Predict the structure.
Amino acid sequence: MANTLIKIRNLLKQFGSHKVLDHIDLDVIEGENLVVFGQSGTGKSVLLKCIIGLLKPDEGEVEMLGKNVVDISLKELNEIRKQTGFLFQGAALYDSMTVRQNLEFPLKRHFQFTQEELDEKVESVLEHVSLAEAVDKMPSELSGGMRKRIGLARSIITEPKIMFYDEPTTGLDPITSKEISDLIMTMQKRFNMTSIAVTHDLICAKIIADRAIFLRSGKIAYEGTLDNLVDSDDKFLKNFFSDEIIKENQGS
C-alpha cells in the first residue's frame, strides 16, 4: 500500500473574517500528481504555503513526510524542506546570478559539496532539461520557456521527494506549455517524486494529473480524475472548464 506523504486535517486559514481555507481534509499519496483547480482568490496558493510552513494555519494539522509542520521547530521544518522542491510562477531566478550560480544556490545553502560535486550536479540537471549550453548565461538572456526549465532544474537539483508547482506554465504559449508539462512528467518519473500543482492550464493538467481537486468557497468542492471534473454535469464546473477550453483553443 502506498504511503501518505501529505496528510491535512481540519485545516482552517482565514484573513480577518474571510475563511480562505475552511476546515479542509486532504491526503496526498506517494508517487501521485495532484492538480488543484479553483477560481482566483480561492486559496490554491495559500494551501501550498500552509503545507510547506510559509503560513501557519489558524486550526488543524498539516503532516508532511511524517512530521506535523504546524508544531515543529524552524530547524526541523528546514530539514523537511530539504526534501521538497518549489517551482514558482515566474521561475523566481536570481537576476544577478548566472544559471550556474542559481543552480548551485540551494546546494550550497543546504548541503556540503565540493566544487567538483557541485559542477557534476549542475551539469547533470542541465542535461535533464536540455539546457547544458545555458550554464553561464544570465536569466535576462533566456526566453520564458528556458527560464521555466532552469527554475525546474533548480527545484529538482536536490532530488526532492515532493514537488510543489504554482502555475508552472503561466505566461507560456501552448507549445511551450506542453513542453514544460512533459518535462515535469519526465522528471517526476526519473526521480520518483510526488507533486501538487496549482494550475488553471488544461494542457498542463491533462498531461500531469493523476487526481484533481477543485477549491470553492474555502472547501474542496469536487474531487476525482481530471476527466471526472471536466466532463461533470455540474453547472459550475461546466462553466469553469468551458471557459478554460475556450482560452486553450484561442491560444493554440
Summary: The mean pLDDT is 89. The two ends are 41 Å apart (CA to CA).
